[in-house]
Specification:
468 residues, alpha+beta, Helix Hairpins, Glucose Permease (Domain IIA), two-stranded parallel ribbon, 8 helices, coiled coil, hydrolase
Length: 468
C-alpha cells in the first residue's frame, strides 16, 4: 500500500513538472526571409549594372546580332543552374544541421531520463523518511538538537529537489526547442526539394529552347563569327564595360573611405564632448566637496549630496569607454595584399586544351586579347585569385560573362560560360568555383574565354598562371 501511494505521488509530481515545462516553442522558418533579404541587398547593385550595360548597347550601331536571340535563353539556363548549385549546397548544410540536432536530442533525452530517475529516488527517500511536516516537527516537543538537525536535513532535501526540478524543466524546454528546430530544418529540406524539382524542369525547357534557336540561327551565327568587324565591336564593348566598372569601383571605394572618415570624426567629436562633460562634473564635485569642508569647519550641517548629481553614472570614467559607440567590425580582407606578387603562382581557371593564346592572329580580325581554353560543357571554372565579383551577366559576344575585381585595378574575366554561379557583390577566394564552361554568346566550341586586365588594358595571362 505504501509503495503504491509513493508510486502515485511520484508519477503525479513528474506529470506536473512535464506540464509546466512543455510549453510549445514558437516555430519560425527563416530560410525564405533570409533569401528575400539577400535579394534585396543585391537589387541596388544589379540596377547599376543593368543601366551600365544599357548605356554601352545604346552607343552601338549593330542591333541585329544573331547571338542576341540566344540571350534570354542562355541567361535563363545560367540562372537555373546557379539556383540548383545553391540549392545543392544549402541542402547539404541543412542535412548536416539535422544530423547535429538529432544527436543533441538523443543526448538531451538521456539527460532528462537520468534527471527524472534522480528526482524519483529523491521523492521516494523523502516519503520513506516519513516526509514530516516542518510545523509538526517544531510542535512535537522533541529534543531541540534533533529538531534542528532534521530541519537542516529538510532544507538540504528541498534545495536538492528544487535544483533537480529546475534542471529538469530547463532540459525539457531544450528538448522542445530542439524538436522544433529539427522540424524546421526538415521543412526547409522539403522546400529545397520542391525548388530543385522546379529548377530542373525549367532548365530542361530552356536547354530545349536554346537548341532549337541554335539550329535556326546556325548559318547566321557562322557568318557572324567570321566577320572581323563583329569581333572588333565585341572587344570594344568589353573594354567599355571594364572601364565603366573600374569607375564604379573607384567611386565605391571613395564613398567607403568618406563614410569611414565621417564615422571617425563623429566618434572623436562624441568622445571630446563626453570628456568635457566629465571634466565639468568633476569640477562641480570638487567645488561641492570644498563647500562641505568649509561648512563643517563653521559647524554647519553638511548638505546631502546625491552622488548622481556629482557625476553622471553614464559618464563614470570606468564606464565611459563601454558606453562609447562600438566601431563596426573590420571588413574581411578579400583582395590579395599585393596582386603582382602572385605572378607565376595563379592556377588555370579550368582544365582543358589551350586553343588560342594572347596576341595570336584571329583571322582577319584583331589579335586575341586573352586565352581560349577548350573544356567540356559544365566543367568547373575557378577564380584565379581572391576578390569580389563585379559583373555576372550575359554580354553580347561573350555570352554569360563574369568579372572578378582583385584590387589594385586588376581584373580577371571569364566568358562564354554555360552558367554563372556567383552574383555581383559576392566575395570569392582563389580556387572558388564561379561558373561552368559552355558555348554561350554564339561561340562554336565549348570552353572558356579568359582575360586578365590591369587599368583596363589586357595582358598575357600565361605570364601569371601555372599549369601545376
Amino acid at each position: 500500500m505504501i509503495r503504491e501511494r509513493w508510486r502515485r505521488g511520484a508519477v503525479l509530481a513528474l506529470a506536473l513538472l512535464l506540464a509546466a515545462g512543455a510549453a510549445p516553442a514558437a516555430k519560425v522558418t527563416e530560410r525564405t526571409r533570409q533569401k528575400q533579404a539577400a535579394e534585396a541587398e543585391r537589387a541596388a547593385l544589379q540596377q547599376k549594372l543593368t543601366a551600365l550595360k544599357r548605356a554601352i548597347n545604346q552607343t552601338e550601331s549593330a542591333k541585329d546580332d544573331a547571338a542576341d536571340a540566344l540571350a534570354e535563353s542562355e541567361a535563363a539556363i545560367s540562372d537555373a543552374n546557379r539556383a540548383l548549385y545553391d540549392l545543392a549546397r544549402e541542402q547539404k548544410e541543412t542535412a548536416a544541421r539535422v544530423g547535429r540536432l538529432q544527436k543533441e536530442l538523443a543526448q538531451l533525452t538521456r539527460e532528462v531520463d537520468a534527471q527524472k530517475e534522480r528526482l524519483s529516488r529523491l521523492l521516494r527517500q523523502q516519503y520513506v523518511a516519513g516526509n514530516e511536516d516542518r510545523l509538526k516537527l517544531l510542535l512535537s516537543g522533541d529534543n531541540p538538537n534533533r529538531i534542528n538537525r532534521d530541519l537542516q536535513y529538510f532544507g538540504y532535501v528541498s534545495q536538492a529537489q528544487a535544483k533537480l526540478i529546475e534542471m529538469l524543466r530547463a532540459d525539457m524546454a531544450a528538448v522542445e526547442r530542439n524538436r522544433a528546430d529539427t522540424q524546421d530544418a526538415k521543412d526547409e529540406l522539403d522546400e529545397i526539394a520542391l525548388e530543385q524539382r522546379d529548377q530542373k524542369a525549367l532548365l530542361e525547357r530552356e536547354k530545349s529552347k536554346r537548341a532549337t534557336l541554335v539550329a535556326q540561327l546556325s548559318s547566321r551565327l557562322g557568318a557572324q563569327r567570321k566577320e572581323a568587324g563583329a569581333v572588333e565591336r565585341d572587344e570594344q564593348r568589353l573594354g567599355g564595360l571594364v572601364d565603366q566598372l573600374a569607375k564604379m569601383i573607384e567611386e565605391q571605394r571613395r564613398a567607403e573611405i568618406a563614410a569611414e572618415n565621417r564615422r571617425r570624426e563623429l566618434a572623436a567629436a562624441a568622445e571630446r564632448a563626453r570628456a568635457e562633460k566629465l571634466r565639468q562634473q568633476q569640477l562641480a564635485r570638487k567645488k561641492q566637496q570644498e563647500q562641505q569642508a568649509q561648512n563643517a569647519a563653521k559647524g554647519r550641517p553638511a548638505p546631502r549630496v546625491d552622488p548622481a548629481d556629482a557625476i553622471d553614472a553614464d559618464e563614470n570614467p570606468n564606464t565611459a569607454t563601454a558606453k562609447a559607440e562600438p566601431a563596426p567590425p573590420p571588413k574581411p580582407a578579400i583582395f590579395p595584399s599585393s596582386f603582382p606578387a602572385l605572378r607565376g603562382q595563379l592556377q588555370m581557371p579550368v582544365h582543358g586544351e589551350l586553343a588560342a593564346r594572347f596576341g595570336a592572329n584571329r583571322g582577319d580580325g584583331p589579335s586575341w586579347k586573352g586565352l581560349f581554353i577548350r573544356a567540356p560543357e559544365g566543367a568547373e571554372i575557378k577564380a584565379v585569385a581572391g576578390g569580389r565579383v563585379v559583373f555576372a551577366e550575359w554580354l553580347r559576344g561573350f555570352g554569360n560573362l563574369i568579372i572578378v575585381d582583385h584590387g589594385g585595378q586588376y581584373m580577371s574575366i571569364y566568358g562564354n560560360n554555360q552558367s554563372l554561379l556567383k552574383r555581383p557583390g559576392d566575395a570569392v577566394k582563389s580556387g572558388d568555383v564561379i561558373a561552368s564552361a559552355g558555348n554561350s554568346g554564339g561561340n562554336e566550341q565549348s570552353g572558356l574565354y579568359f582575360e586578365m586586365r590591369h587599368q583596363g588594358r589586357a595582358f598575357d595571362p600565361l605570364g601569371w598562371v601555372t599549369s601545376r
